[in-house]
Write a structure and sequence with these properties.
single chain; mainly alpha
Amino acid sequence: AQANVERSSPETLEQTYVVAERLADTQRKSYTDTFMSTKKSDHGGKREERRDTRNESA
């Protein structure tokens, strides 16, 4: 009976949606932060390393 009430209750449905949306927003934020910091370090160290390796093999 409880499952039926939860399934048909718009409040519970809305709550689940809000939680899911909040979770997605948090994931998007942390992904953006990670991506940005990775991009920054790319400009700093990794790009130089790549250039050196390319010169050596060539």
